[in-house]
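Lecture notes, unit on protein representations.

Consider one protein chain, 83 amino acids long.
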Amino acid sequence: MFGGLAFLFKGKMTVGIVKYDLMVRVVGSKMESVLKRPYVRPMDFTNKPMKESIFVAPEGLVTEEELQEYIELGIEHGIQKLS
């Protein structure tokens, strides 16, 4: 779909890799606060922001804990979409 590797949770896209960035699906109510984090920007694969999707630059993923937090955000998005 976007030229990267995506991971699914119960059939819903949660996180993935596009070039060097981590792509994460985020529930709408958390988007504003997540976008304020360093090295995070809207997923703009089509030159316009995609709904409930962000990119995280490699500099924002220094520790395993940081990666785990973004994975959990993606899974939360997948769970919400199943409800």
